Amino acid sequence: MSEASLERRLLILAPLGRDAALMRAALRSDGIACEICQDLDALTAELTRGAAALILAEEALAPRDERLASVVAAQPPWSDLPILLLTRQGADSAAVARSLQTLGNVTLLERPVRPSALASAVRSALRARERQYQTRAHLEEREQADRRKDEFLAMLAHELRNPLAPIRNAVHLMRLAGARGADGQIWEMLERQVGHIVRLVDDLLEVSRFTRGKIALRRVPVGLDAVIASAVETSQPLIASARHRLRVNLPAEPLVVDADATRLAQVFSNLLNNAANYTDAGGSIELAARREGGTAVVSVADDGIGIEARALPGVFDLFKQGSERGGRGQAGLGIGLTLARSLVELHGGSIAAASEGPGRGSVFTVRLPLSAALADAPAPADAPASRGGAAPRVLVVDDNRDAADTLGALLRMLGAEVKVVNDGQAAIEVYAAFRPAVMFLDLGMPGLDGYEVARRIRDDAEAAGTALIALTGWGQEKDRQKSKAAGFRHHLVKPIDLTAMQAVLAAVAR
């Protein structure tokens, strides 16, 4: 019997007399597929194979027997198995009362039941079950669509990051070369815009993970002053480019929350970016924090274009931007506020938007529960300082020649001795003679990919001192876990951030 046939049959358990056989004969004449079960064990076994509904006689329910209740409780969220319970005439028994409490979707049919009434009840149950199957099919279709969307976004991010890698490397080269005057302003502008594109790519992947509940927080007691300082540092280039005035008002007392510091800094950075984007040049932005009882309250206020009253309820909706904010379009995807709300809610807090209307500015307020920890949160470790001395001997391996050459030039400018190759076989050959301390290795090369190159190098007994750094356009958590399992010490996503690369080199040197 096919799976579809199993799921559309009616199971009957009526252990006394000829009730089961008579019901099966009557229902089969109406075209309803039925199967008689001899006992409760047989019924539960058949249920695991599939069923549309049950007809169950009251006398089949043994006192304190939880087998059927356990199967019903284990149903998937879309399922609510219809159960028709044949009861004795008169007052309800203890078994019937217990069944109503434990078996969920139960319809009582008092005996003797007319054949037409039984057939009508069965048809109603089967129609309800068919709607449940339609719901299941819809959910499965959505899951498949989500998987296809995630695969597309991951591929899009990978393809966008590859050409961005040499562009960002070139920008870093110009900055390190000490570009001044008009040239310096041009390279600073390019660096900002490349960073903006990278953030858009990251936001696309982030929102996909949030909608599927795939974000895991690493929560520890942390001081809000450190989190806010990180957010301000991230948003400062955008604020400065628009010549905004930013005021930060923090209380003297420490505000400690149980939070993932990186994710929470992302919240406040997104709110500051939003304020900068929707405030005319030379405007004012204020970020303030205070304590209200057991809650930390952080607000970001601006004197920008404001929000219409009708738009306020949907301001955190995905892809809402531009036309919903007074007709003013901004660069971006309308994702930042959606991410901020999701992250705040994951931290057990809330976020709200307020505005007195167009031209009157806006205020976004975040409320977070304070930590039970009494001691001040430990200060975050300083970022590794830029090293002016010689960096380790480095081998760069990437089939994207522009990305490889610009990264090699950047590493040489930092004082490293560098060799660059563009395929896996050449990497193995050069490695044997060069013996680098660090290897930046692209994972997605044709022929011998980065994983195979890493495996062959790890087979060399003298390779223990070489730090393998994964260089890739794939940046999801599963990609990082895969590279870690393959023996890579660090996982850098293209285009490489200069500070991140310097931190990796500093860690290897130590």
Description of the structure:
By secondary structure, this protein is of the alpha/beta class. It is 46% helix and 17% strand. Strands 2-1-3-4-5 form a 5-stranded parallel sheet, sandwiched between helices. A 5-stranded mixed sheet has the order 7-9-10-12-11. A 5-stranded parallel sheet has the order 14-13-15-16-17, with helices on both faces. The longest helix is centred in the first third of the chain and has 62 residues. It is extended, with a radius of gyration of 32 Å.
Specify the overall morphology. extended
Number of strands: 17
Radius of gyration: 32 Å
Q: How are the strands ordered across the major sheet?
A: 2-1-3-4-5
Describe this protein with a few key phrases.
510 residues; alpha/beta; five-stranded parallel sheet; five-stranded mixed sheet; 17% strand; extended
Short overview:
This protein has 510 residues and is α/β, with parallel strands linked by helices.
Task: Chart the SSEs and their pairings.
Layout: H1 3-7, E1 10-13, H2 19-28, E2 34-36, H3 40-49, E3 53-57, H4 67-73, E4 83-87, H5 94-102, E5 106-110, H6 115-176, H7 181-211, E6 220-223, H8 224-241, E7 245-249, E8 256-259, H9 261-277, E9 284-292, E10 295-302, H10 336-346, E11 350-354, E12 362-369, E13 394-397, H11 401-413, E14 418-421, H12 424-434, E15 438-442, H13 450-458, E16 467-472, H14 477-485, E17 490-493, H15 498-509
Parallel strand pairs: 1-2, 1-3, 3-4, 4-5, 7-9, 13-14, 13-15, 15-16, 16-17
Antiparallel strand pairs: 6-8, 9-10, 10-12, 11-12
Helix pairs in contact: 6-7, 6-11, 7-10, 8-9, 9-10, 12-13
